[in-house]
Design goal:
heterodimer, A: 308 residues, Tetrahydropterin Synthase, Chain A, 3-stranded antiparallel beta sheet, B: 437 residues, alpha+beta, 6 domains, 4-stranded antiparallel beta sheet, 11 helices, elongated
């Protein structure tokens, strides 16, 4: 009975070993190439899952990551067509191509490993970078004139040239290319600093004058607007008063019959207003009612006297 | 004899084996118990192996399961996840539910050991030292200037399947070494975002001046960076989305910072002057037409541009609602007009009332009205009444000054004396000013 257990364990281990030697997994992120006695199959396996193969040394498997990878090149000076030096570093987004023969093509070209493929790609990038940047002038990289700027098209041009060279030959697909560093040699930056300094000093002087001028403009405009507002208000006032005058004038005809009565009433009112506050009124003894203070005044009051 | 000898020999052997059996027994017992423990450990290991892919998914995570290398369709949210042990199943976890932060310092200057963490104002460089391209990062601007920027990026994942199946883990630099050697789930995303920030930063800066990048168009730079990077991430189908791109300490190179700061101060002074002028403008117009002066100015402009009844009527309406001095003038005019018209109406009414009586006996009416008025005047205690006796030759009236006016005159006189006294002393000449006028 004891032997049966041992035998079962041995059989199980043997099966596991056999399974290990005769199967392989293709991850969803990978592409696999089966090599029979070192000769790769004509097409790679891109579908994920468990696969069978003959045990080594009959068949072996090479797998590649089929996802996007980033490859940077070295930072180095390169010369534009107008003899300006630029310090440029680039990056390339690449992957093993998804056409049936791409992975096999890559493996055939770089049997020692992916690193060789990366080196080849980097060499191609560097060559194209120098070649294409050398065809363009400095203002095509940075310029105030939008018509002159061509940075993106230069990047596309380098990326396109690299893609053309590596796609068919090595099975490498280029998905993106860009400049990750665009600088100037150290000696040139010193000159740029001097220029920037002069420019900033000029700008500082300009700001002071501009501030003064703009403030004056704003105040002048405010005064002018104020004058316009007040003029419009005065017009409005004149209109209101004219309207009132018109109404008042239309009422004058009411007094046409006896204007002297209206004038008398106005005088009474004026007199009363004038003597309404802190006034001294000096009255003559001949004027009523003071005329009755004297005997002569009182003697004038008799039945036959006429009323004045 | 032989048999006897054998028998003896056997007996001798038995005697010798007796102690060995006890040792064997204990060794056997020890081995048996060791095997038992080993079996137990193996059983535990087998159980642990079978449950090795059972675990929890954090609240900020999502997980995917790979079966025999193929991606299963479900994306697992927070909670318990169960999967077969390796090599059958594999669990891939990603912190997709939270925003992740990344700092990209590729475009800033190299900080020496003693400068790390210091504010820019405490770091300086000689004005004649240039930038070392292998150490210092910078952005080249459209006006051939140089600026330093440190980028602070927040990003998250919007499609975990796309991220896991789109971007490789290994990315290499110019020497063939991994760019980010850390074996972190976020490392590939960060490497990609970093190069896209570097590329897009160069691109955006090449279209703007140094001043625009670090001072006047900061918002535009941020928006352009975010927009362009997200467009590229979408095109690549990486399942990553950049939420914000902020600029940390954007500055000109330290070598020109002093000049730049002076320009900045001058610009601040300019802006201050303009702000003050605008405040003054608001005050002037507020005083002229009140808070709604804008509407009045607009109506005025409209009426001046297009002088038609509609615009004129609109201007009149707006003027009627105006405040400030203009509004006060208009309201005063309105009130005055009402008073004038009202008084006239009252005069007419009075006239109409008295007219019939006047027609009948004008003298009596006039006398009666006069008497009534005189009575009111004479009964007013504020009116001083004086009687000039009949027959006197001379009558003089002395009217005293108004007490209020007298007080004002005294104050003026006192000031004038003080002023004259000071003028006589040379040491106080400087104090003589308009306030003494």
């Amino acid at each position: 009975m004891k032997n049966i257990g041992t035998i079962a364990a041995a059989v199980f281990l043997g099966l596991v070993l056999l399974l290990y030697m005769c199967t392989f997994q293709v991850r969803f992120t990978e592409v696999a190439i089966v090599k029979t006695f070192g000769k790769p199959a004509s097409e790679a396996i891109a579908e994920p899952g468990l696969r069978f193969k003959w045990p080594p040394p009959i068949q072996t498997v090479t797998t590649y990551d089929k996802r996007i990878r980033i490859l940077e090149d070295r930072t180095e000076e390169t010369r534009t067509v107008d003899h300006k030096n630029l310090v440029v570093t680039t990056f390339t987004l690449w992957r093993i191509g998804d056409k049936p023969g791409d992975a096999v093509n890559f493996l055939t070209n770089f049997p020692s490993g992916e690193e060789d493929g990366e080196k080849q790609l980097r060499t191609t990038v560097v060559t194209q970078k120098h070649a294409i940047i050398g065809k363009h002038a400095f203002p095509e990289f940075v310029s105030l004139d939008p018509m002159k700027r061509k940075l993106r098209s230069i990047e596309d041009e380098i990326g396109g040239a690299v893609a053309t060279e590596v796609r068919e030959r090595y099975g490498i697909e280029i998905l993106g290319f860009g400049i990750k560093k665009l600088g100037l040699p150290q000696s040139v930056t010193t000159d740029i600093f001097a220029k920037m300094k002069t420019k900033e000093e000029g700008a500082a002087a300009g700001y002071a004058a501009e501030g003064e001028a703009q403030a004056q403009d704003i105040l002048a405009e405010a005064k002018a607007t104020e004058a316009r507002i007040m003029a419009a208000a005065r017009d409005k006032v004149a209109k209101i008063e004219n309207e009132a005058e018109k109404v008042v004038s239309s009422m004058y005809k009411e007094f046409d019959e006896h204007p002297e009565l209206r004038i008398f009433l106005d005088k009474l009112r004026a007199l009363e207003v004038a003597l309404s506050n802190r006034a001294t009124l000096i009255l003559d003894s001949n004027a009523a009612p003071w005329d009755i203070v004297t005997p002569e005044g009182r003697s004038a009051v008799r039945p036959d006297a006429a009323v004045e | 004899m032989h048999q006897h000898h054998d028998h003896h020999a056997h007996r001798d052997l038995d005697r010798v084996e007796e102690p060995l059996d006890a040792a064997n027994q204990s060794l056997s017992d020890a081995l048996r118990s060791s095997f038992g423990i080993l079996k137990g450990i193996m059983l535990i290991l087998v159980i642990l192996y079978f449950f090795s892919n059972v675990g929890g998914i954090g609240s900020h995570e999502e997980a995917l399961v790979l079966r025999l290398g193929a991606l299963k369709s479900d994306v697992h949210d927070a909670g318990l996840i169960w999967a077969f042990p390796f090599p059958v199943d594999e669990i891939v976890r990603l912190p997709t539910k939270k925003s992740n932060e990344l700092t990209v310092a590729s475009h800033t200057f190299y900080r020496r050991e003693n400068e790390v963490g210091k504010a820019l104002s405490f770091i300086s460089r000689g004005s004649h030292s240039g930038l070392n391209p292998s150490l210092d990062g910078a952005l080249l601007t459209a006006d051939t200037g140089l600026v330093h920027v440190e980028w602070k990026v927040t990003y998250k994942f919007n499609d975990v399947r796309a991220y896991v199946s789109g971007l490789a883990e290994r990315h290499v630099d110019s020497t063939g070494e991994p760019i980010d050697p850390d074996d972190r789930a976020l490392a590939p995303a960060e490497t990609l975002i970093r190069v896209l920030i570097e590329k897009t930063g160069i691109e955006v800066a090449s279209e703007l001046t140094a001043e625009e990048v670090i001072r006047t168009e900061v918002d535009q730079v941020r928006e352009e960076m975010t927009g362009r990077i997200n467009q590229r991430l979408r095109t690549l189908g990486t399942g990553i989305v950049v939420e914000t791109v902020e600029m940390h300490e954007p500055t000109t190179p330290l070598q020109v910072r002093e000049a730049f700061d002076r320009a900045q101060q001058a610009e601040n002074a300019k802006q201050k002057k303009i702000r003050e002028a605008e405040q003054q403008r608001t005050k002037i117009l507020n005083e002229a037409a009140g808070a709604s002066y804008d509407a009045l100015v607009e109506a005025l402009d409209e009426a001046e541009r297009n002088d038609v009844p509609e615009t004129r009527a609109k201007l009149q309406r707006v003027l009627e609602g105006a405040e400030g001095r203009a509004g006060e003038m208009i309201k005063t005019a309105g009130a005055y007009s009402s008073i004038v018209v009202g008084r006239m109406e009252s005069d007419v009414a009075q006239y109409r009332t008295l007219l019939p009586e006047y027609r009948r006996s004008p003298a009596v009416l006039i006398e009666r009205l006069w008497e009534q008025t005189r009575e009111r005047i004479f009964s007013n205690p504020r009116v001083t009444k004086m009687y000039r006796p009949q027959g006197i030759k001379e009558f003089r009236i002395k009217i005293p000054l108004d007490p209020e006016q007298r007080r004002v005159d005294e104050v003026h006189r006192a000031r004038q004396q003080k002023f004259d006294a000071k003028k006589l002393r040379p040491e106080t000449w400087h104090a003589v000013g308009p306030e003494y006028d």
